Amino acid sequence: MSKTFYITTPLYYVNAPPHLGGTYTTIVADTIARYKRMIGFDVKLLSGTDEHGQKIERSARGQGIAPQALADRVYTEYLDLWKLIGIEFDEFIRTTEQRHHTSVSELYTRAKANGYVYKGSYSGWYCVSCEAYAPESDPSTPATCPDCGRKTEWFSEESYFFKLSAFQDRLLELYETNKAFIRPESRRNEIASFVRGGLKDLSISRVSLKWGVPLPDDPGHVFYVWYDALTGYLSGMGFKSDDMKFFRYWPVDVHLVGKDILRFHAVYWPAFLIAAGLEPPKSVFGHGWWLFKDEKMSKSRGNVLNPYVLLEVFGSELLRYYLLREMVFGQDCNFSFDAVIQRSNSDLANDLGNLLSRTMAMISKYRGGRIPAPGEAKGDGEIRELAGRVVQSYRANFDDYNFSRGLENIWELISRVNKYIVENEPWAIAEKPSQAKKLDSVLFHAAESLRLIAALLTPVIPKTAQALWQQLGIDADVKTVRLDELRWTEELAGKTIRGGAALFPRLDPKEVFTKMDDVSGRKEAAAPAVPAAAVETGEAAVASMITIDDFAKVDLRVATVIEAERIKGADKLLKLVVDLGFEKRQIVAGIAVAYQPESLIGRKVVIVANLQPRKLRGLESNGMIVAASIGPDTTPVLAGFHEDIQNGARLR
Ligand code: MSP
């Protein structure tokens, strides 16, 4: 029976729609899963959604819906997105499923039976956005979150604690004996020094929160959302629901996560597992961040790219290729539209696309569509030898999760074959019967190289790989290729090619940007309109009657403008950051005609705090500033206060 390989993506929060960061993690996980299958492993790829906790409860409340309804909606968005990008996951776990509740309770019960859980009380600062505790615990000094820099919130209540402090030595030993446990190495050092600095026991239950899995022996408490979510890796693989499956695939071979959540996976998670007598994962890989103009893409900064827009404009194959080719796995990387276009035109349309189309065209024109048996041409041996070498180096790089180098290896072969064709000038020798063998050889070597290239591309761009094989006249599913068996053969000789359309059209930057605007505009139009709430005092008739309960649904809050700037290309809009006391928000407001950005800094305003987030000009707007105007096209006047009032106060 073949060896197993269990790989996971994080379980994504459902407070907001999917964004490029998680899309990237999942594309990489899918690529690794496909690659491992290609080298003979019995692979399980798990993805999922993290549906409990304060962040989601609050977001649902803000949208006036139940947390479960929000979770159901965003879960579906993830499923749709994974399908569009060609993610072939084997398991998907939602933390609101019953099988998951069972498994969280079991993990806790075992840890408690082993003496690693006790009851106490917790007082400290908490970051709802990261669902993490801040290290400081002085109630008089509000702490900012060490991870994201946001303001934290104080809470103090009865809680169950996990004895994390008991695991310091065991964790350090784990990092020491298994050097690949945390990757890349630089992050291993960071985590090890964090652990060496001392570990405090961890509060793993909340009483003030209701949206979670209740503790089996004290249902007034729900589990801390990270204790709950991490356990998804067990529940999704049959823990307490399918023993055969669980024993076959556990432990996890690699958890793929972004560097911001490495600590949870490399410190808390192995400790939770060991405490319950379960094997910890074999490795955790913390990849870098996608940046936009050197800043981390994040929902709170409002600079995240919408994966649906990118997919519609670029297609899934180009997006997959770009993300894997451009980012050195483990490091941060700037996302650039120009670079996507460049990769598409140069690597895909020009190098790969031309190799395919000229090979197809020549086989069809000079050999009636049949791939000839090889003869002899200048450079044949070199091509064969390079192909063999490329398969080896590609394998070494992919084994090491060095995808961009592995892709470079493939492109080395593509370039060499293109050059080989030019050097042999097939178009010049085509009419000379004495050169027939030479022409045969060029055509054969080009076709056989393409067969191998397609096979190597399968984990990254599976649809393109299959299309390449189809054009070459190969009926088999390219996914069935085993890398061990992939070698230069002459089996293509005599095959009739099918040919077909160009795989990648050349992209014109102007057209791409116009399309990007159209698609983003369409997606934005689907969201509710009006950037600033216009209180239309000039209209005689008031809107239809509402009840006090209807009014209570609108969460109006006091906030202070702390940043304001114009948005390039949008005359009417300003990008603002407002401080609500308990959090900071980015809001895009249609008030640029009336206010200079500088004049707004420090000004108290009223915002609609529970309006669904939406995108304007590609920027996320999390709320709406309240302003009055005489009519839709007249100058808005911001609502404000004569007396001082603190941020976050609610208007009732
Ligand atoms: N729910 C937790 C994970 C629980 S796993 C048991 C969570 N969810 S998340 O939806 O916020 O984040 C998912 C992943 O997206 C994380 O791995 C995070 O690192 C990644 N990214 C978020 N922004 C990113 C970039 N800008 N670039 C690359 N990935 C980043 O955290």
Question: What CATH architecture label of the domain at 337-485 applies?
Answer: Orthogonal Bundle
CATH homologous superfamily name of the domain at 337-485?
A: Isoleucyl-tRNA Synthetase, Domain 1
Overall number of strands: 26
First-to-last CA distance: 67 Å
> What is the overall shape?
globular
What class do helices, strands and sheet pairing give?
alpha/beta
Features:
single chain; 652 residues; alpha/beta; Isoleucyl-tRNA Synthetase, Domain 1; OB fold (Dihydrolipoamide Acetyltransferase, E2P); eight-stranded mixed β-sheet; six-stranded parallel β-sheet; 21 helices; 41% helix; binds 5'-O-[(L-methionyl)-sulphamoyl]adenosine
Brief summary of the model shown:
By secondary structure, this protein is of the alpha/beta class. Among the domains are: 337-485, Isoleucyl-tRNA Synthetase, Domain 1, CATH 1.10.730.10; 528-638, Nucleic acid-binding proteins (OB fold (Dihydrolipoamide Acetyltransferase, E2P)). Helices cover 41% and strands 20% of the residues.
Q: What do you see in this structure?
A:
This protein has about 650 residues and is an alpha/beta fold. Among the domains are: about 335-485, Isoleucyl-tRNA Synthetase, Domain 1; about 530-640, OB fold (Dihydrolipoamide Acetyltransferase, E2P) (Beta Barrel). Strands 17, 18, 19, 20, 21, 24, 25 and 26 form an eight-stranded mixed sheet that branches. Strands 3-2-1-12-13-7 form a six-stranded parallel sheet, with helices on both faces. The relative contact order is 0.09. The model is unreliable at about 525-540 (pLDDT under 50). 5'-O-[(L-methionyl)-sulphamoyl]adenosine binds near residues 50 and 290. The site of 5'-O-[(L-methionyl)-sulphamoyl]adenosine has 21 residues, from strand 1, helix 1, helix 7 and strand 12.
